[in-house]
Specification:
With about 90 residues, the chain is of the alpha+beta class. It has 3 helices and 4 strands; from the N terminus they run αβαβαββ. Strands 2-1-3-4 form a 4-stranded mixed sheet, covered by helices on one side. The mean pLDDT is about 80.
Length: about 90
């Protein structure tokens, strides 16, 4: 895992929106991406390159121990809310 991957998977907002969407263009990732766009939900897109094994990086496993995509992290309040059941 590169330091870029570790930084990319840190638990902090990755843009102006309160929601980080960790995904890769797979069928399940696309379904959630379409919903977020259609529902006009502001989100920060964080790529998880499953072809390179990013989903097994320790920093990503700290977010989603099931090493699956997509994952949504919402930053409201003191503790981030993680959704692995997307």
């Amino acid at each position: 895992m590169t330091s870029e991957s570790a930084e990319r998977f840190d638990l902090h907002p990755h843009g102006d929106a309160d929601l980080d969407f960790f995904t890769w263009p797979t069928p399940n990732g696309r379904k959630v991406a379409i919903f977020l766009e259609e529902a006009d939900v502001a989100h920060n897109l964080v790529p998880v390159d499953t072809t390179k094994g990013d989903q097994f990086a320790p920093a990503y496993l700290a977010i989603n121990p099931n090493n699956k995509i997509p994952t949504i992290v919402e930053f409201r309040g003191a503790n981030p809310l993680r959704s692995m059941a997307v």
